[in-house]
Amino acid sequence: MSRSSEILFQDYGTAKLINGRAHITIDPILAKNIVVNSKHPLRVFIQLEGDCKGVYVTNKTQNGFDVIELQGGTSNVAFSWTLTANRADTYDSNGNVISKNADVRFPDGPGPVKTESRKNKKIKSIDNKKK
Fold this sequence. Notes:
This protein is mainly beta.
């Protein structure tokens, strides 16, 4: 089961480095429904599908991101990507917030459940009961 304490959207896809670089454009429908800023970063996860020097993700915006091979690499390797972003607030035609999404968080859950240690308890076996 997957759960999140925030209202998030996800997307995924595949791409290929060309001479060690790739730019991924986020679908425009998704882009207008997410918020990306210092408080709400775009989270991008890359899975390489071939050999290269490794990659990093940079220039993350509401509209896309870049994947760059490490150490000036020039590979043409395929990769899969997944992104997660906070859902943007929704506004009416007058600019009033009608649905607050970006900063919504579920409250912290309760702490761990305390259980009594069985170490110091004597447990009677069914076989030891008198009949």
